[in-house]
Design goal:
The chain is of the alpha/beta class. It is built from 13 helices and 9 strands. The chain has a single domain, classed as TIM Barrel, CATH 3.20.20.70. Helix 1 packs across helix 8, helix 5 crosses helix 7 and helix 8 runs parallel beside helix 9. Bound molecules: S-adenosylmethionine (SAM), 6-(5-methyl-2-OXO-imidazolidin-4-yl)-hexanoic acid and iron/sulfur cluster. The site of iron/sulfur cluster has 9 residues, from loops.
């Protein structure tokens, strides 16, 4: 992954981009998007919660934190066979990436981690991109995941460093960054991003975007979630963020991380099809499919199929989407 298109990327430059008039911002972002990706294609991923609930962390947004009464039932680590059939079903439904999530603060060496390694290597053999999100990881654990066939690791920075203590106090921002470095060092691709609409300011969103873009190399995958307010969590009454702010974040992300996949992740159930279309036009090129994310709801398959058909967006593998190093014919049509 290259660095941003800017020679040195300052917070000020990101802010200037973020605050461009909307038409200008969308136009520039879409131009950049077309330069690197086929704009008529979209990639689909599927999430599976392999270990649900009872998490010791106090992330204020999360249905799975043991600190809040969200009514979610705690579940043990899933069985390998169940995981494999979920992956096969996801592949049949058009997902090219399968992401397994566990409500852990960090990975602990031992039989549970060994079971996850087996899940990774089995799903890898199905010819899907395998992704995991398991909390903090050491260098040696990252290496073992890589050896098992892990393609990507999701670990979100969630927001700006200064806003972070408002949301989580059981770990530090630096801890997240360290895990991302461990993932990178092991040769696994990096998927990181955050949540919009947690009460952060525009300056926080700018600093969050800046932090994502200054990773060197840049993350291959950036997840942009719109907060799903969960009853029982401290953010249950949070007012929804205006759509135009979500679009500004995606457009800015596209401009400062031109070659990263941008995933319009949680929160699509609260967005109209026109809202989602603006996000795709601004540079988002991946979604999670299926009626469930990890524990929360997502548009169901027929609804997404209808939306994508109306927009003329066709599914594609991540690697086929990129126009870098290929003839740019799709781009010039
Ligand atoms: N425990 C692991 C971790 O925190 O990295 C993995 C699972 S965690 C559920 C994955 C990500 O989901 C979080 O980093 C957060 O960005 C996102 N997420 C969780 N709850 C959410 C919500 N209510 N709305 C939007 N995104 C959410
Ligand atoms: C990410 O940034 N969003 C996905 C994925 N990474 C793991 C998870 C969204 C979870 C939404 C809340 C839930 O379903 O529990
Ligand atoms: Fe635990 Fe991850 Fe939820 Fe935080 S976001 S409470 S670490 S499952």
């Amino acid at each position: 992954m290259p660095s941003s298109g800017f020679s040195t990327l300052s917070i000020e430059k990101v802010k200037k981009t973020y605050q461009l008039p909307m038409v200008e911002l969308l136009y520039k972002a879409h131009q950049t998007h077309r330069k690197y990706f086929n704009p008529n294609k979209i990639q689909a991923s599927k999430l599976l919660s392999i270990k649900t609930g009872g998490c010791p962390e106090n992330c204020s947004y999360c249905p799975q934190s043991a600190h809040y009464k969200t009514g979610l039932e705690k579940e043990k680590l899933m069985d390998l066979n169940e995981v494999v059939s979920a992956a096969k079903k996801a592949k049949a439904e058009g997902a090219t990436r399968f992401c397994m999530g566990a409500a852990w603060r960090e990975v602990r060496d031992g039989p549970l981690f060994d079971q996850v390694l087996e899940m990774v290597s089995t799903v890898h053999q199905l010819d899907m991109e395998v992704c995991c999100t398991l909390g903090m990881l050491s260098k040696s654990q990252a290496k073992k995941l890589k050896e098992a066939g892990l393609y990507a690791y999701n670990h979100n920075i969630d927001c700006s460093e200064s806003f972070y203590p408002n949301i989580i106090t059981t770990r530090k921002y630096e801890d997240r960054i360290q895990t991302i470095h461990n993932v990178r060092e092991a040769g696994i691709t990096v998927c990181t991003g955050g949540i919009l609409g947690m009460g952060e300011s525009q300056q926080d969103r700018v600093e969050f975007l800046h932090q994502l873009a200054v990773f060197n190399p840049q993350p291959e995958s950036v997840t942009i979630n719109k907060l799903i307010p969960i009853p029982g969590t401290p953010l249950e009454k949070q007012k929804p963020i205006p759509t135009m702010e979500v679009v500004r974040v995606i457009a800015t992300a596209r401009l400062i991380m031109p070659q990263s996949m941008i995933r319009l992740s949680a929160g699509r159930t609260g967005m109209t099809e026109s809202d989602q279309f603006l996000c795709f036009f601004a540079g988002a090129n991946s979604i999670f499919i299926g009626e469930k994310l990890l524990t929360s709801s997502n548009p169901d398959l027929p609804q997404d199929k209808k939306m994508l058909e109306q927009l003329g967006l066709t599914p594609s593998k991540e690697k086929e989407l990129s126009l870098v190093g290929t003839a740019k014919s799709a781009n010039t049509k």
